[in-house]
């Protein structure tokens, strides 16, 4: 799954090169703002954007940014808790000599041999 993370623009580095600094929950990174520069009203310091792999994908309002950040944080703790519980069970997937998982049933049709 790919996630877009809300970030607030805190500095315009160079509009000619489409570079700005965004703050995501206290972490500042340079991002590319080319995709949002053409949106109505342009972009300015203080705007919230949805960031994916270093690109501002769209402008969002502060309320949507807060909701999205809250949801992502909830997912993170749920994911961490689930992973910790799984690790505590000691359950392991059996592997063959090549490191591939062993399975009891045939794989996709492309892996089955016609008889």
User: What average pLDDT do the residues reach?
Assistant: 76
Q: Assign the CATH topology.
A: SH3 type barrels
Main beta sheet = 5 strands, antiparallel
What is the C-alpha radius of gyration, as a whole number of Å?
Answer: 22 Å
Q: How many separate helices?
A: 2
Gap from first CA to last CA: 38 Å
Task: Kindly report the spatial arrangement of strands forming the biggest sheet.
Answer: 3-2-1-4-5
Categorize the overall geometry: globular
Structural domain tally: 1
Low-confidence stretches: 105-115
Residue share in helix: 25-40%
Given helix and strand content, the structural type is alpha+beta
Secondary-structure element string: EEEHEEH
**Number of extended strands:** 5
Strand residue content: 25-35%
Q: According to CATH, what is the class?
A: Mainly Beta
Tell me which CATH architecture applies here. Roll
Question: How would you describe the overall organization of this protein?
Answer:
With 115 residues, this protein is α+β, with helices and mostly antiparallel strands. It has a single domain, classed as SH3 type barrels (Roll), CATH 2.30.30.140. The protein contains 2 helices and 5 strands. A 5-stranded antiparallel β-sheet has the order 3-2-1-4-5. It is globular, with a radius of gyration of 22 Å. It starts with a strand and ends in a 26-residue tail after the last helix.
Write the layout of secondary structure elements.
Elements: E1 5-14, E2 19-24, E3 27-32, H1 34-37, E4 48-52, E5 55-60, H2 62-89
Antiparallel strand pairs: 1-2, 1-4, 2-3, 4-5
């Amino acid at each position: 799954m790919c996630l877009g993370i809300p970030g607030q623009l805190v500095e315009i580095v160079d509009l000619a090169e489409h570079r700005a600094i965004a703050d995501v929950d206290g972490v500042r990174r340079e991002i590319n703002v080319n995709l949002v520069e053409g949106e109505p009203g342009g972009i300015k310091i203080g705007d919230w954007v949805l960031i994916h792999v270093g690109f501002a994908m769209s402008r969002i309002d502060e309320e949507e940014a807060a909701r999205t950040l809250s949801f992502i944080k909830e997912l993170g703790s749920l994911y961490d808790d689930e992973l910790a519980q799984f690790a505590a069970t000691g359950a392991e997937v059996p592997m063959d000599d090549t490191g591939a998982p062993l399975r009891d049933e045939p794989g996709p049709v492309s892996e089955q041999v016609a008889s």
